[in-house]
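Module 6 notes. Inverse folding takes a fixed backbone as the condition and produces residue identities as the prediction. Think of it as a translation problem where the source language is geometry and the target language is the twenty amino acids. Below is one complete input and output pair. Work through it position by position during the lab.
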């Protein structure tokens, strides 16, 4: 087969040899820069129809759009067949920009996606990126995520394979072997002769690796074109479910309680504690049920408007690791590669999603984007603010920030804010404007009290009370949690009012 196959050392060497034999260094960088510019422009507009291959027989590197060879590099240079432009080495400056080329190419219909036979070469794209210092969109022409299931013997399978936009994870806690069977860590050879504490340490390290793999793929999707991660599905599509995870982490709860707490743990602790603080606003989480006993967790990532970093294993790396999704894998970008990618991608996303929020539109957005329902929370918020004479207003119309404000003080203070990224934020810098919250124990009571209400779903530092307190809004999808939250706030406000009345 003359098409470049992924991970094929022979064909990859043929591609490198082809470049070395026909181009000097300056020509090589010039041509590959042009090639990857065109590829990136196509990938932005029609990612699921673009593919790349290298034909070793004809010695051609080609970009295909819906099976049409739109751009070709051969021994003569770069050609764009439908524009009749040849030999980039003789006339590079006169060539139109990548965007102009894309505008003149008939991209065809997305319906043709399934007819593409060429395999997109991740290795070639990565190699070109290294030469040009220019990160690329690496899009694989697989089918979009869907929910097609089939039964083989007694097991259920998802018929859609992994792709740039779809990833399977067997679990987030329970270890599985290569044949997708649950592993008992106590029987492993590596743990023979170890005591209970050592085996638990090994299990914790294993869990951290499992969760890191999930988080880096999620970060890569957020930084790219989005995607779906299905937790409880093996690499071959076999649906394992998440029951094993529930039994390990929430073994004392009923099945329904464990399901709810597992979802809250993922959305309210695992993700916000490890990814950039605004990442949660681009993530939707829900269960997909096959039957009452078999279900997996579906985590949908939307393209983020800002770079999302994963908490680094290197403690000296304060900003975190930056991943992008390439094909069915996630890759770490560092230094100039990372900076280049961020500079070329995120400013456009902000422009594409410019919204002037009002209280009503932001409330509607948060309610509609909730897997369950936040309507009850906002109903109770209105009642609470009316009862305690608090004001609700939009603090930032472009970012979407609702402010809950205490006006009847010598200096009005912002109690907390709610933003479009599903965070409720208590900011000590604002609360300390009041004499009541200048007392450390009163400010610390806010953090400790919320911790009692929400075991998962919040982020705070009980030692350093100068840090903001983040509460993930989706933990308030349950009516009983909403009631606990406002009862807690009622107690805080009453103490605040009593303090002020004595002055």
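Target side of the pair, the amino acids:
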């Amino acid at each position: 087969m003359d098409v470049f196959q992924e991970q094929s050392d022979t064909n990859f060497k043929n591609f490198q040899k082809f470049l070395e034999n026909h181009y000097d260094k300056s020509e090589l960088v010039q041509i590959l820069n042009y090639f990857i510019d065109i590829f990136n422009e196509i990938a932005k507009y029609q990612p699921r129809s673009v593919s790349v291959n290298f034909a070793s027989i004809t010695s051609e590197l080609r970009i295909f759009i819906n099976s049409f060879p739109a751009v070709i590099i051969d021994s003569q240079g770069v050609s764009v067949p439908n524009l009749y432009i040849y030999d980039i080495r003789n006339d590079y400056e006169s060539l139109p920009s990548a965007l102009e080329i894309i505008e003149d190419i008939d991209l065809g219909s997305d319906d043709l996606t399934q007819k593409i036979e060429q395999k997109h070469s991740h290795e070639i794209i990565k190699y070109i990126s290294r030469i040009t210092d220019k990160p690329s969109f690496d899009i694989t022409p697989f089918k979009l995520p869907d929910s097609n299931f089939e039964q083989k013997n007694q097991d259920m399978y998802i018929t859609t394979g992994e792709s740039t936009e779809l990833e399977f994870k067997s679990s987030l806690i329970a270890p599985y072997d290569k044949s997708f069977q649950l592993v008992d860590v106590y029987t492993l050879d590596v743990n023979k002769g170890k005591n209970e504490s050592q085996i638990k340490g090994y299990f914790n390290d294993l869990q951290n690796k499992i969760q890191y793999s999930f988080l880096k793929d999620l970060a890569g999707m957020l930084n790219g074109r989005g995607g779906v991660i299905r937790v409880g599905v093996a690499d071959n599509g076999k649906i394992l479910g998440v029951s094993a995870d529930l039994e390990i982490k929430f073994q004392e709860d009923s099945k329904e309680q464990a399901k709810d707490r597992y979802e809250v743990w993922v959305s309210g602790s695992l993700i916000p504690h490890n990814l950039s603080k605004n990442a949660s606003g681009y993530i939707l989480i829900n269960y997909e049920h096959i039957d009452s006993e078999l279900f997996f967790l579906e985590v949908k990532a939307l393209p983020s408007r800002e770079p999302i970093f994963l908490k680094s294993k290197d403690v000296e790396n304060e900003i975190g690791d930056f991943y992008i999704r390439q094909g069915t894998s996630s890759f770490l970008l560092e230094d100039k590669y990372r900076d280049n990618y961020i500079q070329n991608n995120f400013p456009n996303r902000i422009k594409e999603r410019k919204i002037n929020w009002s209280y009503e539109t932001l409330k509607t957005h948060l309610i509609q984007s909730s897997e369950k329902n936040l309507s009850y929370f906002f109903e109770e918020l209105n009642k609470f603010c009316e009862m305690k004479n608090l004001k609700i207003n939009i603090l930032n119309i472009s970012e979407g920030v609702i402010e809950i404000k205490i006006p009847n003080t010598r200096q009005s203070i912002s109690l907390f804010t709610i933003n479009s990224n599903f965070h409720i934020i208590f900011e000590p810098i604002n609360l300390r404007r009041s004499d009541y919250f200048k007392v450390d124990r009163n400010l610390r009571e806010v953090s400790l009290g919320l911790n009692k209400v929400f075991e998962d779903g919040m982020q705070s530092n009980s030692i350093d009370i100068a840090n903001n307190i983040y509460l993930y809004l989706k933990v308030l999808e349950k009516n009983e949690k909403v009631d606990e939250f406002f009862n807690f706030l009622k107690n805080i406000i009453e103490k605040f009012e009593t303090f002020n009345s004595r002055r």
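Reference fact for the lab report: Confidence is low (pLDDT under 50) at residues 1-7, 84-92, 109-118, 140-145.
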